[in-house]
Amino acid sequence: MTAVLTEKNGAVRPPVRPGGPQPPARRRTGRERAFDDVPRWQIYLPLGLYLLFTLIPFYWMLLFALRPAGSTALVPWPMTGEHFAKVWNERSFAVFFQNSMIVGVATLIATTLVALAGGYALARFDFRIKGAFMLALLCSQFIPGALMLVPLFEIFRNLQMINSLWSVVIAETVFQLPLSIILISGFIKNVPVSLEEAAWVDGCSRFTAFRAVVLPLLRPGLIAVGSFAFVHSWNHFLFALMFLSEQDKQTIPVGLNTLIGADSVDLGALAAGGVIAAVPVVIVFAFIQKWLVTGFSAGAVKG
């Protein structure tokens, strides 16, 4: 039995017979030849320099966090954990970490749920102001958060939400929603409507069809949107500084700012606090990196 092989451009290659003449090999395109002819050192050298440039600040932070106070060694040996103990116990970083985790997780859940509903509406329904609404979402990305501090502060003051973590969660969610809705909408457009229609024929409601058919296919997009919302709310300094004045309600970015005094800076404690702040973000990206690029690229494709 002979098999018919098909080229990428649709041309049919003749079947290969055992012992017979072999068909000519496919000619490489100019782009493939150009990539194969590039020496590997021309690829690895720039990447290595960029990696070195990126990792040096992290090494410098670890150096100050792990070496004893007063040491000038370029290698953190002997290592010490005094700076971590100081910021965690004496500077209330345990409370800051807990508050940041609450804000980050709550923002992740709220942003994902609202963006999922809004993205589905934009992807599956047609209404009169749909184009204007999409334009408004895009234009909202050009508004700096600092311009909205005074109106938001007045709103939260009237609602008696100042010094409440929920004020930061609401503000972070509002500023994350436009981009999240656009990404989720683009991702849902890539899911064929025929899949939902088949579920409707089988007796499923719209919500049941969405939950059973569409939602499992949106996992890369949801992970991308949720992780972006978590990291942004974890690192954001301005909203927490303006809406939270009590020390037991502050987050890690504000806590790091308290380590910078008017006359001196405790570099060891500041570096240890930076390491504590960076660990959750590194863990999140280590687990979701394969989904992150897929989710953002798929959500950016025009349906």
UniProtKB/TrEMBL annotation:
- The segment(s) forming the ABC transmembrane type-1 domain are 97-288
Question: What's the short name of a Pfam family annotated to this entry?
Answer: BPD_transp_1
Main subcellular location? membrane
Q: Does the keyword Transit peptide apply?
A: no
User: Where is the chain membrane-spanning?
Assistant: 43-66, 101-123, 129-153, 165-188, 265-288
Region (Disordered): which ranges? 1-31
Could you tell me the Gene Ontology terms of the biological process aspect for this record?
transmembrane transport
What membrane topology does the annotation report for this chain?
A: Multi-pass membrane protein
Which terms in the GO cellular component ontology are assigned?
Answer: plasma membrane
Which intervals carry biased composition (Pro residues)? 15-24
Q: Which PROSITE patterns match?
A: ABC_TM1
Quote the InterPro entries the UniProt record gives.
BP-dep_ABC_trans_perm (IPR050901), MetI-like (IPR000515), MetI-like_sf (IPR035906)
Keyword annotations:
Cell membrane, Membrane, Transmembrane, Transmembrane helix, Transport
Compartments, as annotated in UniProt: Cell membrane
**Similarity-based family:** Belongs to the binding-protein-dependent transport system permease family.
In its UniProt entry, what is this protein called? Carbohydrate ABC transporter permease
Q: What is the lineage of its organism?
A: Bacteria, Bacillati, Actinomycetota, Actinomycetes, Kitasatosporales
